[in-house]
Queue: 2 jobs
Job 1
Amino acid sequence: DLPLDSWVIFVDDDSNTTASNPNLGMYIETAVPTLEAAMEFALFNIDNGVNVSALIVAKGNYAPVVNTAGIRIIGTCAEETKIIAAPNHERALVFAGPGGGSLEHFSVVGATKGVLIQDTQATLRDVVLTQQFVETQALDDTDTSITIEDSVIENLTGAIAVTVADSASLIMRRSILRDI
């Protein structure tokens, strides 16, 4: 259900494609190797008038990412496509900026301060968050919201699973909170 007039960028942690490849990110065979580099490439293309709608991510393990492009990050499946945050990472995932965006078909694990939605609208769809919480921050008078669908938030013993700022909104559909 991606727009027909948009581009996608392929991401694969097993890729060894270099930035000098003229087909970088255009095919799975020339995938960008990290989410961070793919997001930078998406922003570059958007700034130059290209309609980039999504990062299509192969199964594998990826470092945290900040989505300021407002695009979808679509994994292969939640069981085999993971964002793994090390203790030195501030957040596993951040959505910020006017575009919003989504994370779909991923697991998010590791020791961090979780997922942040800041002054934007974001969606988590078919995501498993293990020891990760979701937080919204509405710093401006923007429409800040998080939609969590078909997802699991787990293993936050004694912690808060979702924090919603005063002026923000939360929609949860067919999702599970367990071992909270």
Job 2
Amino acid sequence: LRATSAASRSSREAWRRVLRRRGWLLVPAVAVTLGGGWLAVRCCQPWYAARAQVEVLPSPPPADAAAPPAPLSPADTAAVATVAEELGSPANVAAALGRLPPAQAAALTPPPLRSPAWLRRAWLRLRPQPADAAARTAAVLRHLSVRVTDNSRLLSLDYTAPSPALAAAFLRQLDAEYA
């Protein structure tokens, strides 16, 4: 037992010597790491995801409640894929953007970083928001995902926005625009 404690003591002493000799390197490394973490927390814009599932084709009534649902026919699969393409089309997204209140439509494509007011004024002059409808629609399409749920009549719509309420409002508007 004494041999173990002596070896442990010498190991601790070796680490202490290394820390004394290399402390000048560790202090700036820790400072840079903490500063980078603080900067990331202060300046990055939070993004939230909203997900909606839309039933494209009505389900046929089951003949037996215990029986599994019938697989989709090739025609139904093609119809679901067509609806997915139409729902995520630029024309449908532009129409949904047009029906949102202007403040919400503008908030869907914010700058990626938060910044102080004095810096924000200078930055927005250098990097303006998309002005025309096509650029705004393209910016919104980058955050939209329309996927067909495996072998079902459901579409999964995902949208990321700086606010969960804003993301949900856009998905509701997109669904209402298509329906």
